[in-house]
Description:
Blueprint: E1 5-8, E2 14-15, H1 18-28, E3 33-36, E4 43-45, E5 51-52, H2 55-65, E6 70-72, H3 74-77, H4 90-97, E7 100-101, E8 110-111, H5 112-147
Antiparallel strand pairs: 1-2, 1-3, 4-5, 4-6, 7-8
Amino acid sequence: MAGLSLQCGDCGTLLKSVEEAQEHAELTSHSNFAESTEAVLNLICSSCGKPCRSKTESDLHTKRTGHTEFVDRTLEAAKPISLEVPKASADSEEDVVAGEISQTEGDIFFKKKSVWLDFIVIEAEFRFFLILHDILNLLHLSLVRIGR
């Protein structure tokens, strides 16, 4: 059977195309890729339509939004990958510059920017909780001193 995805041998990430593998390699410096018969997960949030490519991503989406229902469209979008790198046209370069990659027919457009925004939101939430933790510690110390 032809491969349905490319798997990064360094971190295990499943990628839909050679282009995604190249982008992953540029972002992470990983270079060990192999064909996989496992399809890239394609969970779609029933409430807002956000595509999630892993259980972890859908769990984070649920935590941030409260949306709990997802439709599994993995098999609908699973197509054998081509190991050929398509020639870049002027239009596709503009799409990449704009931060978008258009997928094959039936797939949902996803934005690279939204992935970075997800990381920024997670980092902001983490920093918020660290600050809140520090404030509560100061409050506790103040109450302990008053009680003496």
